[in-house]
Amino acid sequence: MLDIDKIRAEFPILKREVNGKPLVYFDNAATSQTPQIVIDAIVDYYYNYNANIHRGVHTLSQEATDKYEEARLKIQKHFNAKKSFEVIFTSGTTHSINIVATGFASLLDKGDEIIVSALEHHSNIVPWQMLCERTGAILKVIPMNEEGELVMSAYDKILSDKTKLVFVNHVSNALGTINPIEEIIRKAHNVGAAVLIDGAQACPHIKPDVQKLDADFYVASAHKIYGPTGVGILYGKEEWLNKLPPYQGGGEMIKEVTFEKTTYADLPHKFEAGTPNICGGIAFGVALDYANSIGFDEIEKREMELLNYATKKLLAIDGLKIYGTSNNKTAVISFNIDKIHPYDIGTIVDKLGVAVRTGHHCTQPIMDFYKIPGTVRASFSFYNTKEEIDVLVNTVKKAKMMLS
Ligand SMILES: *Cc1c(COP(=O)(O)O)cnc(C)c1O
Questions:
Q1: Does residue 43 lie in a domain region?
Q2: Which of 57, 219, 296, 304 has its CA 20 to 30 A from that of 191?
C-alpha cells in the first residue's frame, strides 16, 4: 500500500489553494506535477555546476557532462534500450516525432503509404500530412469505434507491402484507451513497415520495454512523467537512427566541418545539435528514479482504483456521458453533461479549485467522430485521492445546476 499522505507531502504544489479552495489537480494528462526531489535537482544544477557539456575540459563542464550522460543511462535502463546511444534527448514528444517525420522524407517514394490511427494527438497527425505533401506518400487511418478503441480488422485491411510506416499512440490522451501496440507492431513488421509509438501519455502509468515491444521508435516527454517541461526523448533502433538524416545542423552534431563538406557525428550526437536542456535532462533522470521508487505496479493499481471510483460516482450524475469506455484504459475520464458546453463546466469547477481540461485536447478527429465540440477531461495520477474525486463530483453537480 502506498502512503498517500507521505507522497502528497513530496509535491509542494499540492499544498496550494486556488480561488480560496484547496487545489484539486486533475489535469495530469496535460502535465504532471513535480516532486521536491526533481525540483532540488534543478536547483542543484544552477547552484553548483551550471556549465556547457561535452566541450569544456574544466571541472564544471565535466561534472555537467557526467550527470547528463548518467541521465541518458537511467533513461536507457528505464525503457530497456539495447544501447545508450539509441536514446536521443529532444525538447519533447513533438520534437521527437518531427525528427522522424522529417527524416523519412528522404526514405519515401511517391505512392508509399503511411498509417496513423484515429486516436492520434495533432502532433502525431500534422507532421505526417506535411511529409505526405512533400513526398507524394499517402496517409491512411485506422478507424475507431464507439468505445474509443481502434478497429483492428480495418488495420489488417489497409496494411500492405506499400506500407512503410505506422504511427500510433500507446495511450490516447483524450480518452485514455490503451492501444494494442504489440499486435500493431508485429503486423507492421510482417509487411516490412517501421513503427513509431507515441508514448507521451503511456509513460506516466506504464513502464515500456522497447526491446520486448520491438518498437522501431518510441517517444515521450519528461513533463508528463513528473519531470520538467522542455525535455523528452526519441528512442530509435540503431539501424533506423543510422538510416535517418540529421534534423538540424549546428554545433555538437558534426565530426568535421569544411566549406566543401561536413561529416556527421556518431549517435546520439548526430541528432543533438546545439546546447541541449542540460538541467532538464538531468532532472528527467531523477524523475524516472522517483517513479521507479514508487513502482509502476503500485502506480497502476492506485490509478485504477481512482478511475473506477470516479467513473461510478460521475455516471450517477443524470445526463452525464463518458467518452472512451474501453476496458483497457488509463485513469482518464472524458465527459459531457447533456448539451452543456464543456468550457462552461471547466470554468465553474475552476472557481471551486478543481483543475480539469476542456476542449478538443488536440484530438479534433475524435471529437468529430462523436459529433461534439469537446469534452471535460479529468485525468488522475497516483497522488490524487478519493476525497478529491468527491470534490470534483460535487462541483460538477453544482455546475450542472447553475448551467441547466
Ligand atoms: C502530450 C502529448 C503529445 C505532445 O507532447 P509535447 O510534450 O507537448 O510535445 C503528443 N502525444 C500525446 C499522446 C500526448 O499526450
A1: no
A2: 219
Q: Which atom of ligand 1 is nearest to the CA of 173?
A: 15
Q: Which residues contact 55 (CB under 8 A, 6 or more apart)?
A: 61, 252
d(CA 91, CA 86): 16
Of 392, 374, 370, 381, nearest to 314 by C-alpha is 392
Which of 91, 93, 95 gets mutated to test ligand 1 (max ligand atoms within 8 A of its CB)? 93
CA distances 217 to 36, 86, 246, 269, Å, are: 31, 9, 15, 17
Low-confidence ranges of the chain (pLDDT < 50): none
Q: Is 362 a catalytic residue?
A: yes
C-alpha closest to that of 403 among 323, 332, 314, 320: 320
**Pairing relation of β-strands 254-257 and 262-264?**
antiparallel
Question: Among the atoms of ligand 1, which is closest to the Cα of residue 93?
Answer: 9
pLDDT at 251: 75
Calculate how far, in angstroms, residue 97's C-alpha sits from the geometric centre of ligand 1: 10
Q: Locate the ligand 1 atom nearest the alpha carbon of residue 221 and give its number.
A: 7
398 in the same domain as 370: yes
Q: Is 169 in the pocket of ligand 1 (CB under 6 A)?
A: yes
Are 245 and 170 contained in the same domain?
Answer: yes
Whether ligand 1 lies within 6 angstroms of the CB of 280 is answered as no
Grid cell locating 195: 513503427
* Measured distance CA(82)–CA(48) in Å, rounded: 32
Q: Cβ(228)–Cβ(39) under 8 Å?
A: no
The residue type of 317 is: I
The residue type of 74 is K
Q: How far is CA 35 from CA 14, 32, 227, 288, 331, in A?
A: 10, 10, 8, 11, 20
Same domain, 312 and 236: no
CA distance 227 to 283: 6
Query: So what's the pLDDT on residue 123?
Result: 77
Pocket test for ligand 1, best of 234, 362, 366, 379 (most atoms within 8 A of CB): 362
Contact at 8 Å (CB) between 102 and 234?
no
Beta strands in 96-231 (DSSP E): 113-117, 138-142, 163-169, 194-198, 217-221
